[in-house]
Amino acid sequence: MNNLGYFGASKGTILFKMNTVIENLRKELISKSDENIRISGERFFKEDVRVYGIRSAEVGRIGREYYNTIPDRSKQGIFSLCQELWQSGMMEESFIACNWSYNVRKSYDTSDSAIFERWIDDYVNNWASCDTLCNHTVGTLVEMYPVLLEDLKRWATSENRWLKRASAVSLIIPAKKGMFLQEIFEIADILHCDSDDMVQKGYGWMLKVASQSHRDEIFSYVMSKRSTMPRTALRYAIEKMPPDMRKKAMERP
């Protein structure tokens, strides 16, 4: 595990234990895998995904259990382990990495945005891993440091579909709190005509959640864009609105 080299030779025992955590975690994930769950799980995705075949609740339990055995739970130590988990390409390991990185949120600083961006750009290959990382880990970071909203706007212009989706779904939790409405509109503008359904669903979801606190503003925005907004994004955005508003928004302009 080269990423853990910062421990140094004098801390070889800790390094060994950190390696052992990942090794034992993977053994348990393999032992808990179920072929029927694996096949069923893969059907949720258009993309080729690699899964062990373990129910989400069990993955969460295993992740919590092994987190408590980590000898160095500093942010640097945890992020290094998360990197190892992301590199495996296994979906369940990505979920555990998301949860572990969220566990050290009290130590976040603005430089962590670059780390999370690299994880998305290099390793995320499905909506579930993207949303699990972004809803809580990235969303919390942006709440702590609103200056990083500029990073999300930049992600929205990326050629990577998952960074584009991440720019929107990272604002789901802040949107539930009524936060960042102007930036939500700005990101929706950038993503407005994107042809990727994963991006359309991502920014439509962002608008839908924002509508719970800012219904009239979101409705006005949708009405101003409905002639060019992809129908997938439009349907997501108005899903929580009253029937009369949904009907009006869905009328052909």
**C-alpha-based Rg, rounded:** 20 Å
**In what range is the share of β-strand residues?**
under 5%
The tally of beta strands, per DSSP, is 0
- Let me know the average pLDDT: 93
Question: How would you sum up the major sheet?
Answer: none
Number of helices: 15
Spell out the helices and strands N to C. HHHHHHHHHHHHHHH
Binned, the helix content reads: 55-70%
Shape: globular
- Low-pLDDT stretches: 1-10
Structural class per helix/strand content? mainly alpha
Q: How far is it from the N-terminal to the C-terminal residue, by CA?
A: 57 Å
Can you offer a commentary on this structure?
Helix content is 66%, strand content 0%. It has helices at 12-31, 35-42, 56-67, 75-87, 91-103, 112-123, 127-144, 149-155, 161-169, 172-176, 181-191, 197-210, 215-225, 231-237, 243-250. The chain has 15 helices and no strands. With 253 residues, the protein is mainly alpha-helical. The longest helix is centred in the N-terminal third of the chain and has 20 residues, at 12-31. It is globular, with a radius of gyration of 20 Å. The model is unreliable at 1-10 (pLDDT under 50).
Give a brief outline of the structure.
The chain has 253 residues and is mostly helical. 66% of the residues lie in helices and 0% in strands. The chain has 15 helices and no strands.
